[in-house]
Write a structure and sequence with these properties.
The chain is an alpha/beta fold and 348 residues long. Helix content is 35%, strand content 14%. It has one domain: Alpha/Beta hydrolase fold, catalytic domain (Rossmann fold, 3-Layer(aba) Sandwich).
Length: 348
């Protein structure tokens, strides 16, 4: 009954949050607290060091000495439907690897894991709110049902469910009477629909639970990734009865130009325990393996001379690689936008 109540509550939020304001209400208010590109407090030397980074090859030293001084995109970690396993341990893993905790914690309550019983239109509106105020679109990582929410949010941003989306204030937990934001990089007004997430990932997300939970609208869309994300990674177990995989997993596929990668996880991994990764960042051997990891053809050989459980090592390393990459790309994008704005202001 509790689960049914959560679903009903979610449906109610979907109706209220998804309703488009009138044309007169769709514009940002005059006093909206938008991010100002001039507020980036980095000295020119730090900016040059960030711009000199190669996003696809970020070392552990560069994370500590360079990226740690750069702005970072917010990361929304969405847990599965089983309440006793959240994404908090995975967020703690990312913190141990060097990601700023402030960009992982929910600013409303400090939680490191978000419920997957949330309306996707509301979450899409939250992403727009964060982008407008922080200058960076958040990244999305979801486990099990949380992965379904990740994909659904991508379809929301692509206009797959509605032609407009309402901006949602996560601090007040309420909708704003508008469907557009002021783009923090260009200064121009733009709709929420059409925004693009830099990176998103779904871990052990299957079709069977969508049937059991009555999430019919996602059956066809679950493995279709629209252009509302730059890069998407899907992680699956070939034998995963919870997800509905009995010998093979359905691959994710791009509907357009989004970069989509499918990663098969080791058979030793288990659906429920996939978020448990913090110890991998603390063990010297697995930590070194993660720092040196880069995606490539074939299945990489996991380290054996360690007491740590390496069942979750592959997806933990792969996600960290992508997070470093897009952290770097987004920071570089901000710096270039700042310099372009400064150059335009300097012209007579």
């Amino acid at each position: 009954m509790a689960a049914l109540g959560a679903v009903c509550a979610t449906a109610f939020v979907a109706v209220t949050a998804g309703a488009a304001p009138s044309a007169a209400e769709s514009h940002p208010p005059a006093d909206v607290a938008s991010f100002r590109i001039s507020e980036i407090a980095l000295d020119s030397d730090t900016e040059e060091r960030i711009l000199a980074l190669t996003p696809e090859h970020i070392s552990a030293a560069e994370v500590q000495q360079v990226l740690a001084r750069a702005p970072a995109p917010r990361i929304i970690n969405l847990q599965g439907s089983i309440a006793f396993i959240t994404m908090a341990p995975f967020a703690e893993y990312l913190i141990a690897m060097g990601y700023p905790e402030a960009r992982l914690a929910n600013p409303r309550d400090g939680a490191l894991s978000y419920s997957s019983f949330v309306d996707s239109a509301r979450l899409a509106g939250m992403l727009a709110w964060y982008y407008e105020r922080e200058g960076m679109m958040p990244m999305l990582i979801g486990h099990s049902q949380g992965g379904m929410v990740v994909v659904r949010v991508l379809h929301e941003l692509a206009g797959g469910f509605s032609k407009s989306l309402t901006v949602w204030d996560p601090l007040r937990d309420e909708a704003e009477a508008r469907t557009t934001i002021v783009d923090p990089l260009s200064g121009e007004q733009r709709p929420v629909v059409g925004l693009e997430v830099p990176y998103a990932a779904a871990i052990a997300t299957g079709s069977l639970p969508r049937i059991l939970l009555g999430q019919w609208t996602m059956l066809r869309r679950l493995h279709e990734i629209p252009d509302s994300v730059e890069e998407f990674s899907g992680y699956s177990l070939d034998w995963d009865p919870i997800a509905g995989n009995f010998g093979s997993a359905e691959p994710y596929r791009a509907t357009g130009v989004a970069q989509v990668r499918n990663v098969a996880l080791p058979s030793a991994a288990g659906h429920v325990t996939l978020p448990l990764a913090k110890t991998l960042a603390l063990d010297p051997i697995t930590r070194r393996w993660i720092d040196d990891y880069a995606p490539g053809p074939g299945v990489p050989e996991l380290p054996t001379r360690t007491s740590a459980d390496v069942a979750n090592l592959l997806h933990a390393a792969d996600i960290w690689y992508s997070i470093k990459k897009h952290w770097c790309l987004e920071a570089q994008r901000l710096i270039r936008a700042k310099r372009q704005a400064e150059s335009a202001q300097a012209k007579p």
